[in-house]
Amino acid sequence: MSERSVPPATRQSATRADRAHLIHPLQHPSEHQAPKIWVKGEGSIVTDIEGRTYLDALSGLWNVNIGHGRKELAAAAAAQMEQLAFMPCYTGASNLPAIELSERLAGLTYPSINRFFFTSGGAESTESSLKTARFYWKAVGRPDKWKVISREWAYHGVTLAAMSATGISAYWPMFEPRTPGFLHIPSPYPYYFNRAYERAGGAGSPGIAAANLLEEAIRKEGAETIAAFIAEPVQGAGGVIVPQEDYFGRIREICDRYEILFIADEVITGFGRTGKWFALDHWGVEPDIVNFAKGITSGYVPLGGIGVSDRIARAIDDVDVQHRFMHAYTYSGHPTTCAVALANLDYMERHDLVARAAETGAYLQARLKELEGHPHIGETRGLGMIAAIELVDDRTTRRQFDPSLRIGAKFQAQMTERGVWSRINGDRYFLAPPLTTTREEIDRIVEAAHTALARTFA
Questions:
Q1: Of the residues 306, 328, 350, which one is the last residue of a structural domain?
Q2: 52 and 101 together in one domain
């Protein structure tokens, strides 16, 4: 598909200006010779400066949950900017959109979480949750509890402390040394963990065994030093890793036993992505702190935050004034972004998008299973409207491709050629289209994948 493009001179000058003046996330000129310059989005379709259209199979960057071009959100931003674009929300002051949004979130998140601190995005949310965990233990007289346990393949952002919690090692080398006090345990990654556990003669549940790795790390390090365990319910950028069914129940038990706060990073999984408002509801588990961002505004404006349990909220309120919660961002509780978030939640509820994500997500997962007959598809996996295609060299042994072959990048290029836009991590191709995506659009993604596989391995 294509729409009217801009003149070639404009495209070329935009590219030259981009190269001359912009530093991009994950910047390297070798991967920026012919950048996509996006100019329009409508529903699940985005258009580049060349006039070519693509199905946005990753919702921007896991965040455009309600689809592109919804005029209601633009109108909400404009109306709030005309009335009160910004005033700070530091203690002693507030604004009506921030108040209304926090009250609204109390009705959507986990029952024990009723107080919220707002940020500008996911990494700031991670920083806030980590600092809040340390604050809590100091407030209750246990300052030695300051370390944090995360998991391999975790993604929690790339500001310095968040990067230290992130378990994807490619983000570390050029920014070392990392912040001290962060440990990583193996991911439950069922596709690889379950097979290895069985071959090692493990008895019982692989999910319980994977969760017990947390207990081993706590005992080794000393529970009296551990403040928190942080985990994504579904590991997103690390590979769309959905844990075993009994994994998080055991995690919650371990955190309770050793008095460790459980931080759920729901930056990707929150606000309907998995077919629930928040993903830990799939396993009947509540965290002590929840991180959120992305889907709260569907990416239309930057907004994130954390929600804390009632006991943590009491600790924040009960300290002496000289020990107050000295954590702050200029844009915390920004009235315009909060107004857009409210409009986004209105849109989701009006169109019943959480239930729709569960229903359409089941269709997405079922259609993707059709790809598993291919000799180089290890598995397809996901939950609701988030999924991954795992490409492997050998299905029987689950041997991975030599990275130098760049199989994932070749498959991605074939999908792009067929009008489907998304991202990869190694040889894992990601799918997380808007929650408004139709079955016909999912059919288009799967049909493109069949052809892309044939071309990649021709």
A1: 350
A2: no
The CA-based dihedral angle spanning residues 88, 90, 95, 98, taken in that order and rounded to the nearest 10 degrees: 100
Q: Which of 222, 225, 150 is nearest to 182 (CA)?
A: 150
In a domain, 339, yes or no: yes
Residue 206's domain is classified under what CATH number?
3.40.640.10
Q: What is the pTM of this model?
A: 0.96
Q: Contact 364/387 with Cβ under 8 angstroms?
A: yes
DSSP calls for 211-264:
HHHHHHHHHHH-GGGEEEEEE-SSBTTTT-BPPPTTHHHHHHHHHHHTT-EEEE
Q: 114 and 206, same structural domain?
A: yes
Q: Which helix (H) or strand (E) holds 420?
A: strand 420-421
Among residues 104, 192, 217, 122, which one has the least CA distance to residue 162?
Answer: 122
Q: Which residues touch 430 (CB under 8 Å, ≥6 apart)?
A: 57, 58, 236, 240, 387, 388, 422, 423, 424
Do residues 186 and 97 share a domain? Answer: yes
Reference 308, options 263, 278, 352; nearest CA is 263
User: Which residues form the domain of 445?
Assistant: 8-66+352-456
Mind listing the pLDDT tens digit for each residue in 257-313?
999 999 999 999 999 999 999 999 999 999 999 999 999 999 999 999 999 999 999
pLDDT tier for residue 7 given thresholds of 50, 70 and 90: confident
Helix and strand numbers (H, E) in the chain are 14, 15
Provide DSSP, 357-409. HHHHHHHHHHHHHGGGGSTTEEEEEESSS-EEEEE-SBTTTTBPPPGGG-HHH
Rounded to the nearest 10 degrees, how much is the dihedral formed by the CA atoms of 171, 177, 181, 182? 10
Could you tell me if 368 and 385 lie in one domain?
yes
Cβ within 8 Å of residue 136, ≥6 positions away = 227, 261, 312, 315, 316
Q: What average pLDDT does range 151-175 have in this prediction?
A: 98
The helix/strand/coil state of 90 is: coil
Structure tokens at 116: 């919220």
Question: How many C-beta atoms surround the C-beta of residue 19 within 10 A?
Answer: 13
Write phi, then psi, for 267 (nearest 5 degrees).
Answer: -60, -40
Where a domain ends, among 350, 369, 390?
Answer: 350
Dig out the tokens for 403 from the structure. Answer: 């990275």
Domain count, the chain: 2
